[in-house]
Amino acid sequence: MDAKGDTVKGRRWLKWTIGLLILVALGGAVFYFTRPDPIEVAVQAVTRGVVERTVANTRAGTVKACRRAKLSPSMGGQIAQLPIMKGDRVKTGQLLLELWNKDLAAQVALAQQEVAATQAQVRSVCAKSDVARRNADRLARLRQSDAATAERADNAMAEAAALQAECEAADIQVAVRRAQLATARANLERTRLLAPFDGIIGEINGELSEYVTPSPLGVATPPVVDIIGSNCFYVIAPIDEVDVAGVKLNMPVRITLDAFADRRISGRVRRIADYVLDVEKQARTVDVEVAFDTPDDFKQLLAGYSADIEIILEARPDAIMVPTEAVIKGQSVYVLLASAGRVQLRTIKTGLSNWDHTEVLEGLAPGDLVVVNADKPGLKDGARATRLKERS
Fold first, then answer.
1. Backbone phi and psi for residue 28, each to the nearest 5 degrees, phi listed first
2. DSSP collapsed to 3 states, 39-71
3. Do the Cβ atoms of 75 and 57 come closer than 8 Å?
């Protein structure tokens, strides 16, 4: 009876064991076939390179010409010559505009003739003075030998002195005539606008035969000609008041322009404004001016281009670095363990950082694969993951 009972118990135990194994197998099968697919993550290998701490403009900057002049004649009149058009390139001293000035030109011609006539009088008077001086000297010698009377000698000396005074007066008169000529020429020049430097005509407010008048006191009128220098440019851009404290003169700058999207131009900080701009509904900023390093960059530049600047405050030449977008709250990254098919949340110590790269001081080594799309839904420490692609 006991042997028979043991046999029954053994069979029951076997049935329970088999049933339990079947349940475990079914549970494992259900888990295997219903488990979520591995998360596809984009990764990039940790590398060494240059990491920089930079600041950039808060709003678009502008390319400015070093020289720009808004010109108008210093007197009113009718436009007689306007040999330029908007967009023309002009050279220093080139005529931009001339008012009707025939009356002033006639005054210059008259002054020139008066100078010539006075010079002729000088030659005549001074020639007579030379003759009178020689005659006086001759009579003075004759007087010493009693060959001439004292009266004749004295008269000759007086005449020579008088003619010499007339000669000197005539010389002064020539100087007066030349000053009058200079005045007439200056008045004539007031009717002309000449290019003060090489540049491009940006604007013309006037037409041939129109009348222009100078601006009355307290009333601003548009300039007749706006000329923009074409051989020197700089960039002016606003930097947030928080960031500008670290900016110093001569710091290196990278300049990008919308017109040349794939090109970066080098420059240097040349000026930092001494005041903060407080514009309504905008962040408080400080204007920073940046000079271009290479004059050859001017060949394709135009004043008014929009530009962005990136001022390099500090640089590490051989740093371990990761993409900044991979860093979570500045202290951790997800690392793909390719052999295990899982991701690991790893704490790191960071150094310099910018929009592109962050320096890693501790926690990673070159070659580690960090996840760059750290905001991927479902991504967490230990999650199953597969590599999507490696970003170049």
1. -65, -40
2. EEEEEEECEEEEEEEEEECCCCEEEEECCEEEE
3. no
C-alpha torsion angle, residues 35, 41, 46, 49 (rounded to 10): -170
Length of the chain: 392
Local confidence pLDDT in tens for the 392 residues of the chain: 455 556 666 666 766 777 677 776 666 555 455 556 788 888 999 999 999 888 999 889 999 999 999 998 888 899 999 999 998 999 999 999 999 999 999 999 999 999 998 888 888 888 887 877 887 777 777 767 766 677 776 677 787 787 788 888 888 888 998 999 999 999 999 999 999 999 999 999 989 989 988 766 666 778 899 999 988 899 999 999 888 888 999 999 999 998 887 788 899 999 999 988 877 667 789 999 999 998 776 677 888 899 999 999 999 999 999 999 999 988 999 999 988 889 999 999 999 988 889 999 999 999 999 999 888 888 888 888 888 755 54
Closest CA to 265 of 280, 253, 273: 253
Token pair listed for 143: 């007087």
303 neighbors 64 (Cβ within 8 angstroms):
yes
β-bridge mates for residue 318, sequence order: none
Q: How far is it, in rounded angstroms, from Cα 190 to Cα 277?
A: 39
Instruction: Give the HSE-up count for residue 140: Cα atoms under 13 Å, Cβ half-sphere.
Output: 11
CA distance 97 to 199: 15
Using a 10 angstrom Cβ sphere, with 0-12 exposed, 13-18 middle and 19 or more buried, the burial of residue 80 is: middle
Query: Is residue 150 within 8 Å of residue 91, measured between CB atoms?
Result: no
Strand, helix or coil at 235? strand
CA 392 to chain centre: 33
287 secondary structure, DSSP code: E
